[in-house]
Amino acid sequence: MRTLHDLDTPFAVVDRSRVLANVARLRERLAPHNVVLRPHVKTAKSTEVAELIFDGRPGPITVSTLAEAEAFADKGFRDITYAVGITAQKLPRIRALQERGVVVTVLLDSVEQAEAVAGIPALIEVDCDGHRGGVSATGDELAQIGQVLTESGSLAGILLHAGESYFAYTPQELKAAAVNEADVARRAATTLRQAGLDVPTVSIGSTPTAHAFTTDIDLSGITEVRAGNYVFFDLVMAGIGVCTVDDLALSVVVTVIGHQTSRGQILTDGGWMATSRDRGTARQPIDQGYGLVAELDGTLIPDLLMSDASQEHGTLSLRPGSPYPLPNLPIGTRLRILPNHACATAAQHRQYTVISSQADLVVENVWERIQGW
Amino acid sequence: MRTLHDLDTPFAVVDRSRVLANVARLRERLAPHNVVLRPHVKTAKSTEVAELIFDGRPGPITVSTLAEAEAFADKGFRDITYAVGITAQKLPRIRALQERGVVVTVLLDSVEQAEAVAGIPALIEVDCDGHRGGVSATGDELAQIGQVLTESGSLAGILLHAGESYFAYTPQELKAAAVNEADVARRAATTLRQAGLDVPTVSIGSTPTAHAFTTDIDLSGITEVRAGNYVFFDLVMAGIGVCTVDDLALSVVVTVIGHQTSRGQILTDGGWMATSRDRGTARQPIDQGYGLVAELDGTLIPDLLMSDASQEHGTLSLRPGSPYPLPNLPIGTRLRILPNHACATAAQHRQYTVISSQADLVVENVWERIQGW
């Protein structure tokens, strides 16, 4: 029986109970709405985590790489949306999946791409908040692309992503982002339908907006909701109020390797190689450095932050102005770092060490992450 | 014959000629000094890159993980310094390497660690600039640790790292950091010798200071110099004047997947998963965003930056105030991103696609990176 004391640090830990609770919460949040949940598997990149979402059966998923699509296809997943703008060079791998009976739906936002994907189901990306890609919900371009896709039998529908919701800091802003995402989606669907086109899928979602889809939000006309980060959550999500720190299911175990007491610093063997360089909370009202610090059983150490990182060194220090003394953490002490951004921190690891619940240090399983592209 | 046009993007490219030139430059810089070069292999994590440094033979190296030590031991390397503070739990893997005839020298900066490593060669980390770990060169602690190590036959010497040299922005500051690193090292060696202890190894170095060791710098008493990043270099190093942008040997090939012309943006399939979240140039006089953008043959596109990143999306835009128009880069165009921080960008990839020189698009080789810890 191995425990979190036995493995060489640094390593990534997943708390299975918290994943299950996070998964149940979003399922319940969406239950009153007539929508399909199509989770984005890019955060965990783990077929085992997806099994927790779908109760062991394959379900509809969103992927960020063809490597994810292929790995999930190998596990029997047959309904996959590849939500990064498509280019012609990636089509052979998608056609190979099609030939295996996998429906891979691609994403695009130009006539040029629409012409290239003939015969492959495609969603048109619609911009709802100026975040990244997508065409306007009301301009001519949307209908033009829809027309091209329809001619080749490829039009699957539309997809929106309220990426700017990651910068919402009040429940009101989050709700406004959620309402806007659904409103713009319906407007875009109307644009296409008024052009005489079929729009079977109307896909929206992000972890912040999906959790803001309370029963008073109108999701009529929306067929599916996507979210990814919510399986693990992180300090950025806690900072915008989508979860609490107690919901975080991913952490990194590190070991104390030194002290610089005169500078108020404790050094660990977990640097940015273990946590990533993500500083997502730097732009939030409360900057959490590279992460919060907990004891190995998950108990948070008040005001202790991972304040700096080099490749294989983490620096821990107290939050500026803290009334606490620097805790006594001898060399060899194991700690857990709660990360800013679960997607980025998880990406630094090849596998997850799985525990059944927060304070249970027994290693229940090891789950591999899908690597590369 | 495959070329950079044939592989699925994103992927990391190494320009072998530039690595060779970078390797030769540091070798020449250090040649007038009576020091051993002990490269840090943490940047490339590739035994093939190390072969370029050592002309195909094993040589003395520095590692940041035991996974690196083990992989290099498998390739015949027998003199390895593990330059992250040691803890007792990592000793079994080090003893296993010892039993294979590999000399693994560990690093520490406390009496407690010194007591734990009995029988394993150990360097005492000395602090030269308040950057991270290490004891004072002149305090009692250094001699106390040296005494404990000597009693168990473990004292190998001392090690310093001028980590703050990464924040030097003038040749004068770089030179001062280099002089200080050597001066403090000699002071620390004297402290130990005055306590009657042997100090065979006096190890200093960082990529910025190693390149500042011109012939007028006194390296007497220094036995070895370490540097890691210099095999690839990056925009942070170019920003502090240690190299030019034309020396960068690592880049990431990405594909244009969309345009937001009204916002002056071009979207690619290379997000932070391909470049890392490192924003090292953000604190430099010239902020390079997530990296500079070049054509596939390496020709820089004036003023075009990778200005933003999400997981699998890169946003390119012109540097603020640029007189140039947004270049015409159709969907499917392949580009190369020159990264802020080679160590972090390389860490996002499992392998390197190797080309012989800058404008030669033929894939000459694929080199695997050492993964994990």
UniProtKB/TrEMBL annotation, chains A, B:
Q: Which InterPro entries match?
A: Ala_racemase_N, D-amino_acid_metab_enzyme, D-ser_dehydrat-like_dom, D-ser_dehydrat-like_sf, PLP-binding_barrel
Q: What class of enzyme is it?
A: isomerase
Specify the D-serine dehydratase-like domain's residue ranges. Answer: 249-356
Q: Which GO terms describe its biological process?
A: D-serine catabolic process
As one GO molecular function, the record gives: alanine racemase activity
Keyword vocabulary terms for this entry: Isomerase, Lyase
Which Pfam family is one of this chain's hits? D-ser_dehydrat
Q: What is its EC number?
A: 5.1.1.1
| Family label | Belongs to the DSD1 family.
Q: What is this protein called?
A: Alanine racemase
What organism is the protein native to? Answer: Kineosporia babensis
